[in-house]
Amino acid sequence: MTSSACDTASPRCSSMMEVCEASSVSLREFGCEQSLLSRPDGSSSFVQGDTSVMAGVYGPAEVKVSKEIYDRATLEVLVQPKVGLPSVRERSQEQCVRETCEASLLLSLHPRSALTLVLQVLHDDGSLLSCCLNAACMALMDAGLPMSCLFCGVTCAINTEGEIITDPTAAQEKESRALMTFAIDSTERRVMMSSTKGSFSVHELQQCIAVSQEASEKIFQFYRDSVKRRYSKTP
Amino acid sequence: MFSSLKRRVDEVLLPGDEFSFEADDTISLTEPAKPEKAVCGPGLRRSGDRLVVCKSGVLRHKAPNVFWIDSQQRRYVPAKGESVIGIVTAKSGDVFKVDVGGSEQASLSYLAFEGATKRNRPNVQVGDLLFAQFIIANKDMEPELACIDSSGRANGMGVFGAGGLLFRVSLGLVRRLLAPQSEVRSDLETLFPCELVVGMNGRLWVKSSSIQQTLIIANLLQSCDTMTAQQRKQLFRKVQQGAL
């Protein structure tokens, strides 16, 4: 593994992982592995620098009668923190991920069924929500669920000098004045979801969106490369 | 008209990729003007005059105009006409409930067996395995199975006999096993004689002359999922020479 822009080489990036190195829009080094778990219908693990999330998708499966929706599938997202029980913070992340997934999945193709997406946080070193989104997208793709488009998550931080940092570490997040995460779709590069914290101007928001859209190109290219590599292995 | 689609055959596509079909500007006077229509298989969707990919996988093509996405999936989604291996989970009145690995249990009428009448009920117990075919399978209705074909013959379907072993493999491997001139199948034929039932829902049932041989075949097939053709041939040769 050759590390370029990043100074903290992730111990999770084994030779099994496909690794993309960061260049112009500085994202940390990121990597992914698909269908690594045997029980779920689709699984993935996504690493961004030292942040690491594992995702498992179950479904379309039998649904509880109380949660049944007659014209589309019920999507449930569970975020499990590294230690302790899920709390308010995890609930808000669950909601962000669920709404993004609902927008990209074609849920009406599997009415009266349940989809469960479990996201296990392995390590949090900043940009956790965007890592969750990326892991979720890879797992959904692995499960072969019908989707209208792909999505990716990009986190931007604005520090006290007003500089925009994409894919910040936990330390950079702490020092930042504002923190925003966007989910961007693959067809038109539109913003599907945004989650923001702190104060910023309209101009800064627009700048961050533009930077995220630029960064998303790289992530989508990575998606394509890693799926291609996966299918090249099987005859 | 399909040129844009044909160019990408055998390439890996991702959800959200699009193909657009613009009508040709010129109409040939010599050939009959028949609009070409692409038949979309799994993973492709028609949206207006565009074709949108909705699953990740390899684009496949069958002449003249059938296109589909070949993806590695684990969860089975029932499709009409497919043969599956099911497990009977309940008997209620005149239908059996059968688990086929989909999102809903399928129902199987007791009359849908060869030679079954209102008086002469088939001998099916809860927990039995059966090989059946989907006669109704769509997203809005409960899937329905039958153990007879359209002419009322069993045609290999019905309840399994004693013995044998049931196990699961990926849906991709099942399709590879069922393909005409399947390499996996011809490799398997070189080992020992065995009885193999392949369900499109990823369930395989195998029975050989001894339990040991049955287990060897089951383990071999399960490991075929992640092996290249070369690795598989090597392993099969080892087994043939009695290395296990």
Keywords:
heterodimer, A: 235 residues, alpha+beta, Ribosomal Protein S5, domain 2, six-stranded mixed beta sheet, four-stranded antiparallel beta sheet, 4 helices, globular, disordered N terminus, B: 244 residues, OB fold (Dihydrolipoamide Acetyltransferase, E2P), Ribosomal Protein S8, Chain: A, domain 1, four-stranded mixed beta sheet, 5 helices, 19% helix
Structure description:
The complex is a heterodimer of chains A (235) and B (244). Chain A has 4 helices and 10 strands. With 235 residues, chain A is α+β, with helices and mostly antiparallel strands. Chain A has a single domain (34-233), classed as Ribosomal Protein S5, domain 2. In chain A, strands 1-2-3-4-6-5 form a 6-stranded mixed beta sheet, covered by helices on one side. A 4-stranded antiparallel beta sheet of chain A has the order 8-7-9-10, sandwiched between helices. In chain A, helix 1 (88-104) packs across helix 2 (128-143). The two termini of chain A are 27 Å apart. Chain B is an alpha+beta fold and 244 residues long. Chain B folds into 3 domains: 3-70, OB fold (Dihydrolipoamide Acetyltransferase, E2P) (Beta Barrel), CATH 2.40.50; 83-159, Nucleic acid-binding proteins (OB fold (Dihydrolipoamide Acetyltransferase, E2P), Beta Barrel), CATH 2.40.50; 165-240, Ribosomal Protein S8, Chain: A, domain 1 (2-Layer Sandwich). In chain B, strand 11 (129-136) and strand 12 form a beta hairpin. Chain B starts with a helix and ends with a helix. In chain B, 30% of the residues are buried. Chain A binds chain B through residues 35, 41-42, 59-63, 104, 106, 109-114, 141-150, 185-187, 223-224, 227-228, 230-231, 233-235, and chain B through 12, 14-16, 18, 43, 45, 52, 54-58, 71-75, 77, 102-105, 139-140, 172, 226, 228-229. Chain A: It is found in: Cytoplasm; Nucleus, Nucleolus. Chain A: Pfam families: RNase_PH, RNase_PH_C. Chain A: This is Exosome complex component RRP46. Chain A: Its main location: cytoplasm.
